[in-house]
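Proteins fold reproducibly. Take a sample protein:
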Amino acid sequence: MSDVEEAITRAHHEEWARVVAALTRRFGDLDVAEEAAAEAFATAVERWPADRVPPNPGAWLTTTANRKAIDRIRRENKRDDKHKEAQLVYDNTPPEPLGAIDDDRLRLIFTCCHPALAMQARVALTLRMLGGLTVPEIARAFLMRETTLEQRITRAKAKIKAARIPYRVPAAEDLPARVSGVLTVLFLVFNEGYLATGPDTDPVRHDLTTEAIRLTRLIRALLPDDGEVAGLLALMLLTEARRPARVSASGELVTLDEQDRGAWDATLIAEGHRLVRERLAAAAAGVVPGRYQILAAINAVHTSARDIRDTDWSQVVALYDQLVHLDSSPIVALNRAIAVAELDGPEVALAAVDRLEDKLAGYHAYHATRADLLRRLGQSQQSRAAYDKAIELAGNTAETANLTRRRDQLR
């Protein structure tokens, strides 16, 4: 890849959300914003190799996208109507309250995550508008057909326009009711960045994890006493801290038990542990912890151990037992079984995993977990078959490389 191609890829990762958010604020139309941003990046692909990369790529892209949007509106037969409609959106949008955080991307995520939209539509729209993921990438993350996903995003944008959903951060009294859905979406955006589902993308999308953390920090500034906001931020920080050791130089995923813990980001771990301690103090005072707080506590146990052998697995299992009462999903049960394997042995864990087959047969991590447990029990033939199935279902290239190596090590 040439230097210019790398600059364009980096600009897309770093500037897409900012450009789309700025255009949405100006024109009040997600379609106009998205298409103009895409045209601006297409223009960069054409012009930057000859004209050189501009000193400020973000400013260049925003300016170009604004011109593209204006040109498009002028070409429309109903130009005046579109201008009036856009103006009406802003005339009806109350001014931001004093002290509100002025960030276009924060406004955009509250728009994309409006409760009038179905949850999957909110996630898909956020991944598209803020994450810059393509429809095929999002479709793979949802395990659905691209045409279905495209229709879902189109309907969500149409609903935002028809219902005149305002482009702003909700008022203080409305924030608590709105924030839960936003946290769910941010967690999914972070997960897509930490272990990308697409085979043709970077295995780890640092731009997505960074943006998810940044937006969660902004929401924490809006709601400093919300335990789940603090919990999600701690969870993200403790997970992101392990990213430098997550993928090997050869491009293979490095699992937790094989990671170089000296490469973990000590600053992020310290901040994450501080947030977890704050929530533990609240729990001791009688405040019941939520899902993200428990997940953060589990990650705090992992990042407190200097070696995988020092992990307090009994505490991890106890925390998963708490989590099961809040979230009885098969994914949580699978992760609990992985911890049980370390505490009670692989045979007990395998029995728990096998009970999840009906619900997780299409999930690669289910088969990868079975493969590992069968390997530990000396059942090489069954383990190889499970690895084959996991490799078939996995989309992440680094994860596929790891699974392939583990399978090939079997005799």
